[in-house]
């Protein structure tokens, strides 16, 4: 499922208050700092003090001050214009993602008592064991900002759980956790997650772009359907390049099927050529051949 209107719905003024509760949770467990790598691509941050070369430690109150400043100065820059976001947090800002994760933590926390009735969570993981209709089901909850995905596994010989019951259970839980105010949840394709089409084969995993045909989108000027939609955004050019590189790298490393890899490079190449103004018939004719070479 996809969280709709989540950034507009976020009341940024409450972010420092929620962070206060997060900080209190860890301070009670004798954790008062967060360590982050200074080098880009240095990995995820760490809870606590990590005294190694290339790392910097931040006290939890310092991050509170940064969030408080962001809640008052969440400006949006457009060509020749600068102004505050009137409602919610601006998309694309790094701290907007942090605020969204804070709210997801808050919503999750409020729903945990309900889950305790039939669910056992596994520490240090996104997995949980659910007792449903007299049978056990293993559940993996993953999310990427506003994209949510739930994987359910159960014994196929059991009569207590089937695909319909598992889907109803997962949908009800996601809606209870993430529907708030103007924010709603929108169902996505069964095999689609964060812009990827994922299909399990007998001996391979295919991860390919889950976007419309780039030639058709360019031909009909359907900006909202462009395969490389971030390229048409207001982000800096360096960020656009990073988005495309990351998108291709994830497909390349996740897919064990050569078809998904070649398709990703072919469609990215064709889309960029269309955006650059190359003749469409020329792009359609040579794109696949160039990608293969």
- The structural class is alpha+beta
Q: N- to C-terminal separation?
A: 37 Å
What's the number of domains?
A: 3
Q: Spans with pLDDT under 50 lasting ≥5 residues?
A: none
Q: What integer is the average pLDDT? A: 79
Number of strands: 14
What's the overall geometry? globular
- Largest β sheet strand count, sense and barrel closure: 4 strands, antiparallel
**Tally of alpha and pi helices:** 9
Fold topology:
Layout lengths: L1 E3 L1 H4 L5 H13 L5 E5 L8 E2 L7 E5 H13 L2 E4 L2 E4 L9 H22 L3 E3 L5 E6 L2 E10 L2 E8 L8 H16 L5 E3 L5 E2 L2 E5 L4 E5 L4 H6 L17 H18 L3 H19 L3 H13 L1
Antiparallel strand pairs: 1-11, 2-3, 2-4, 5-6, 7-8, 8-9, 9-10, 12-13, 13-14
Helix pairs in contact: 2-3, 2-4, 7-8, 8-9
Describe the protein in words.
This protein is α+β, with helices and mostly antiparallel strands and 293 residues long. It folds into 3 domains: 94 residues, no CATH class; 74 residues, no CATH class; 101 residues, no CATH class. It is built from 9 helices and 14 strands. The strands form 5 sheets. It has a 4-stranded antiparallel beta sheet with strand order 7-8-9-10, with helices on one face. The longest helix has 22 residues. The model has no long low-confidence stretch (mean pLDDT 79).
Q: Which key features would you list for this structure?
A:
14 strands, globular, single chain, three-stranded antiparallel β-sheet, about 290 residues, four-stranded antiparallel β-sheet
Task: Write a compact overview of the structure shown.
The protein is of the alpha+beta class and 293 residues long. Helix content is 42%, strand content 22%.
């Amino acid at each position: 499922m996809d969280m709709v209107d989540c950034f507009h719905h976020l009341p940024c003024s409450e972010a420092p208050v929620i962070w206060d509760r997060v900080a209190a949770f860890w301070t009670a467990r004798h954790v008062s700092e967060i360590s982050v790598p200074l080098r880009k691509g240095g990995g995820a941050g760490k809870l606590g003090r990590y005294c190694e070369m290339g790392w910097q430690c931040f006290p939890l109150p310092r991050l509170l001050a940064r969030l408080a400043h962001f809640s008052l100065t969440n400006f949006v820059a457009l060509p020749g214009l600068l102004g505050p976001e009137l409602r919610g947090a601006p998309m694309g800002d790094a701290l907007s993602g942090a605020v969204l994760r804070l709210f997801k933590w808050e919503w999750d926390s409020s729903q945990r008592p309900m889950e305790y009735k039939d669910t056992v969570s596994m520490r240090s993981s996104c997995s949980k064991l659910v007792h449903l209709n007299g049978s056990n089901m293993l559940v993996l909850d993953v999310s990427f900002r506003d994209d949510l995905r739930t994987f359910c596994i159960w014994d196929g010989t059991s009569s207590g759980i089937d695909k319909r019951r598992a889907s109803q259970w997962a949908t009800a839980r996601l809606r209870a956790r993430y529907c708030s105010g103007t924010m709603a949840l929108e169902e996505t394709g069964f095999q689609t997650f964060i812009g990827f089409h994922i299909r399990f084969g007998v001996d391979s995993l295919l991860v390919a772009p889950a976007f419309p045909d780039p030639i058709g989108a360019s031909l009909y000027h359907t900006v909202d359907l462009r395969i490389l939609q971030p390229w048409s955004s207001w982000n800096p050019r360096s960020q656009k390049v990073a988005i495309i590189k990351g998108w291709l790298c994830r497909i390349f490393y996740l897919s064990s099927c050569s078809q998904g890899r070649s398709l990703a490079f072919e469609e990215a190449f064709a889309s960029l050529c269309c955006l650059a103004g190359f003749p469409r018939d020329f792009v359609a004719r040579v794109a696949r051949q160039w990608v293969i070479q």
